[in-house]
Every structure is written in structure tokens, then in C-alpha cells.
Amino acid sequence: MTSSESEQNHPQTKPSLAVLLTLLKPIYARYRSRLLLGFLALLAVDFLQLTIPLYLKEAVDVLENGTATSQGLLRLGGFLLLTAAAILALRFSWRMLIIGFSRRMEADLRARLFSHILTMDRSFFDQHPPGDIMAHASNDLSAVQMASGMGMVAAADALVISGAALVLMISLSPFLTLMAILPLPLLGFSAWFLSGRLHTRFDQVQHSFGLITEFARNSMVAIRLIKGYTREQQQIKAFSELGEKYVAANLRVAVVQGLLFPVAILVGNLGMLLILYYGGRLVINEVITLGAFVAFVHYLYMLIWPMMAVGWVTNIAQRGFTSLARIHRLLAARSRLESSLQVSEQSKVGGKDFSARFLVDPLISLRGLSYSYTGARVPALTGLELDLRPGILGIAGRTGAGKSTLCRLLTRQYPLQDGMLFFADQEVNTLAPSLIRDQISYVSQNPVLFSSTIAENISLAAPDASPKEIEAVAELAGLHAEILAMERGYQTRIGERGLRLSGGQKQRLAIARALLADRPVLIIDDALSALDVETEQQVFAGIRARAAGKIVLIVSHRLKLLSGTDQVLLLDQGRVVALDRHEQLLQQHDAFYQAMAQKQQRRAS
Question: Is 242 inside a domain boundary?
């Protein structure tokens, strides 16, 4: 894969706000009725809050004028009580509607992210380790949810309250309103200056979180290896160092946050100081009534909340924007394996025909097959010319000869140039990758198992398989008796990554799974290495029993196993150096094959 391919899988350009909002637009459209009702309830709450100072103004004025009556005060108290009750009900409603929307949006975005990740090729996962993806699906989505929930509410609330409060303040006293807003430019400049720095620093926080998550995941996966080499203290030290970097990144964010809030409070209090001085003088000079001054002070308090909210909303918005940009980079990545829309439609139409044709006459053709990993100086494979037909083909070669790369390319894990690989005489780039993978059972060097029962792990590719079918393939893989000896047989839970199984049991379970899938091609990439020779031969006999009419590729270094294959393919430095029967290769005195044979003979003796 070239560097340009890597860039397509991991775009680095910072997306604009308009581009980012397109991610959320379909979700907002889906829940627009819910949002509309929520914001109507929010506006109603704001309107009712704005009436409270007017009731207080009336009460203070009648008390000051000596015209107050018990009935009038009770009437005002009743209005205040009803207003408070309405505010309570409406506030509960908008929280349920708008905050509920933000949670639904988070779930929808997480599902979209998960679905997209499952479509990506192996080069994407080479760029993004699991810890990084987990950070996106946890911290980043939470930040977007917060911005789309409380952040959006606070922004709308502050805008409505501040606008309405200013109008009412002007109606009470234009001069006092001017005094109140004099410090506002300081707040605007501070928010503009600090928000840009908050974006960069929060991006560093999320990156650090991804690193620490990936380190913890790797440590848990390799816990037995860590304990076996007594590396606990070194892991603790390395984890602590990552934790310190994460804390330092958060403290840099806290510095910006710590400036935003005090500045907002300072601006609000400066306005209050000016109002107390000038407003008090206006009351003394009887320019405004005491009730009007009390109402004005209440409206100023309402204005201080939006001033303080500027810092909080800026913080939440920048966190949400940063996280949304990180999520966008994942969603913008495209698998190089996916065909164009036109080709994909052709694949859908001709998919059944291809599968039926390949099942009847399995043929894989390599025509100058070459591949280079990103950043590698030497190609992993160069100019492979080969036809793979039904039968068992052994593959051998030195470490780094290209054996695993060939297996990965056949299973469409990496992109290829046109004209290099054909299935049933059809070029692979004209077929959907899933269509190719449906023809192949693949067992990798490190079998992947799930924290579920043995039966569920074996039946992964054939979930409708009967217990007898599962037991039959387990028997072929030499695992049936060992499973029955376990406490719950096939219903035994094997733990994360098959924690309760030995290396050989994991490999045989994965082989049983591949045999149960019963596909035209079976690829076993050095997945018999943990077995003793006797068990290996038993498993190989089971594979041969299911090999009729199938293309079977077995990567191995053991001559006992290779001697039972129909042919052996020798690779060296990414090139085919020999293709013949085991006996013929020994007679041809191939240097590598001879050395491997002598070494294993000495070990056996």
C-alpha cells in the first residue's frame, strides 16, 4: 500500500464546522418533532422566568407607595406559585425531550461508527489500534452528546434570556442598561482568545486517552506473558507515565477553563457594581422607582448567567467540536477494497452466479501478484504466477518470505492493483470483498476466540449448525474428547480470547470452526504450530477428509505435514522459488528445504 493510500484511510485535514454538522443533520432531522417540543418548553420556561421580576416590581412599588393590600399581595403570591409550578413541569419536559435526544443521538452515532469500522480493511486497523477506536467510541461520543444536549440548551437558553432581559432592562432604564453591558467586550475577547487554545489542548487530551486505553488493553491481553516474565513493575511504571501525560494534558485544558469562568464572573460582577452605584443614585433622585430598580437587578442577575454560560458553553462546544472532528476522521476513512457503486451493483446482480460457478469449479489465479506494505523498502511479494486448483498445497519459506502476506491478500485484507488476482477467471476488484470472503475459511496464526461457549465459537460462521455437526468437526480437529472432559462440555465458557484453553486447543477450535463453515477454499496460516506431531497428523487427516473438491492452503515449516500435501510451494523474499511434491523438492537439493529437513531429522533423533 502506498502512502497516498494511507492518507485516504486517515485524512489529516481539519474539517469545517459545516462539514461536521452534516454528520448530525440526519439525526436532527429524525428527531425534529422531539426537539421542537423540547425547545418550545425551554422557551416557555424562559418566558415565565422573565415575568417573576415584574411581579416583584409590582409588589415593591405598592409596598413603597403604601397602597398594598392583603388580597393584592396574595394574588401576586398566587401568580408566583403558579409560575413556579409551571416552570417545574416545563423544565422537566425539556430535559426529558432535549437531553433524551442527545442520548439517542449518541447511540445513533455510535451505531454508525461501529458499522463503518466493520467495513474497513486491514490497513485502516494498522493505522488505528483498538485503544484509539475505543477512545472515539467512549470519550469523544460523550463529548459530542454533552455539546448536543446541555451545551445546546445552555446556548439557546442564554441567548433567549440575555436578549429578553436586555429588552426589559432597556424598557426600565436605557442608561442603566448601558452601564451593565460596558464590560461585555472583555468577555467576548476572552472567549475568542481562549476557545482556539481549548480546541488544540482538548485534542491532545483525547489522544492521550487513546494511548492509555490501548496500553491497558494490551496489558490485559498479555497478562500471562507479563507475569511469566515478571514485568509487572515495568508495566506499572509505563502506565503511570502515560497517566501523568494524560493528567498534564487535562491540566492544560483546566488552565483555559479556569480562565474562562472567572472572566465571565468578573464581567458580570463589574456590571453589578456599576448598577448598584448608578442605580442607587437614580432611586435616590426618584428617576426610577425602587420596584423598577429591584426588577432591574433581577434582570441583571439573569444576564450574568448567560455571561457565565459563555465560558461553560465555549468549553463544551470546543470539546464537542474537537471530538466530532476526530469521529469525522474515522467516518471519512474509506476502505480501498470497496468497489465503486457501479461495480458493487454488478456484484450484487452477479453474486449468486459467481458463487455457484466458483463452488463447481474453484480456481484462483495469480498473475504477477505483487504487494508492498506502507513504508517498506522491499516488496513483500513480487510477480507471483500461479493457478490454485482443488487439492492440498503446502506453503513453506523463511521468516518474512511472504507466506502470511499471500494468505491475507487471498482473503482480501489489503488492496491490490487490477489484473493481479482472479477468482473463477473474474478479477477480484470487480467483486465485493465480502463475496470473496464468503468462499474462504481462514485460520490465522493467532486464532481469534470470543468470551462465549465452545459451541458458539465453533458455530460462528454457521450459527444454525446442529450439535451433531459441531461435534463432528470437533472430532475431525481432534478436540471432541477434550471438550467432553470439561465441566460443561460444549457449553463451557472459554473466557476472553480463549483464556481457559491451551495454545493447541485454541488452534484446533479455530480449525473446527473453519471445517464447519465448509467453504470452497480453506487457508490455514501456520495454525498447527502448537500441536505435537501425533495430534498434528490427526488434525491433518480430518482436514483431508473434508478437502475433496476444495482448494486447501496450509502454511507450515514441518516436513511431516508438508510431506502429506499434494504439492509444496516454496517462497523466498516474496518470490516463488519452487513448486513440486515433497519428494521431488528433497531430490532437487533445494538449499532451504534440505536445511529444514536435516534440522527436523536431528531434532527427531
Answer: yes
Q: What is the pLDDT of residues 525-543, one digit of tens each?
A: 988 888 888 888 999 999 9
- Amino acid at site 19: V
> CATH code at 178?
1.20.1560.10
| Rounded CA separation 52/31 (Å) | 32
Summary count for the chain: helices (H), strands (E):
25, 10
* Residue 286 pLDDT greater than 50, yes or no: yes
Q: 150 lies in which domain range?
A: 16-332
**Confidence band of 16 (pLDDT split at 50, 70, 90):** low
* 21 falls within a domain: yes
Instruction: Take residue 234 and report the three cell numbers written for it.
Output: 515495568
DSSP track, 194-244: HHHHHHHHHHHHHHHHHHHHHHHHHHHHTHHHHHHTT-HHHHHHHHHHHHH
β-pairing, 364-371 with 381-388? antiparallel
Look at residue 389 in the predicted model and tell me its pLDDT. Answer: 93
**Main-chain phi, psi angles of 468, to 5 degrees:** -65, -40
69, part of any domain: yes
Beta strand pairing call for 521-525 and 551-555: parallel
- DSSP E strand stretches across 74-176: none
Mean pLDDT of 103-127: 83
The residue type at 123: S
User: What's the confidence (pLDDT) of residue 154?
Assistant: 76
The residues near 553 (Cβ < 8 Å, ≥ 6 apart) are 388, 393, 395, 407, 410, 521, 522, 523, 524
- The pTM (predicted TM-score) of the whole model is 0.65
* CA distance to 45, 109, 194, 567, per residue, from 324 (Å): 30, 10, 19, 53
Distance of CA 418 to the CA centre of its chain: 31
Helix (H) or strand (E) holding 521: strand 521-525
Q: Is residue 571 classed exposed, middle or buried when 0-12, 13-18 and 19+ CB atoms within 10 A define those classes? A: buried
pLDDT in tens, 146-202: 888 878 777 777 777 777 777 888 888 888 888 877 776 776 666 666 666 666 777
How many domains would you assign to the chain? 1
Place of cell 476472553: 496
Higher-pLDDT residue of 474 and 329 is: 474
Cell (9 digits) for 348: 450484487
- Alpha carbon separation from 438 to 114, 434, 472, 572 (Å, rounded): 21, 6, 22, 30
Tell the residue number behind the cell numbers 468497489, with chain if given. Answer: 339
pLDDT tops 70 at residue 311: no
Residue 462 · residue 516 · CB < 8 Å: yes
Identify whether 543 is part of a domain. Answer: no
Amino acid at 507: Q
206: pLDDT strictly greater than 80: no
Using DSSP, state whether 31 is helix, strand or coil: coil
Residues 6+ away with beta carbon under 8 Å from 172: 288, 292, 295, 296, 299
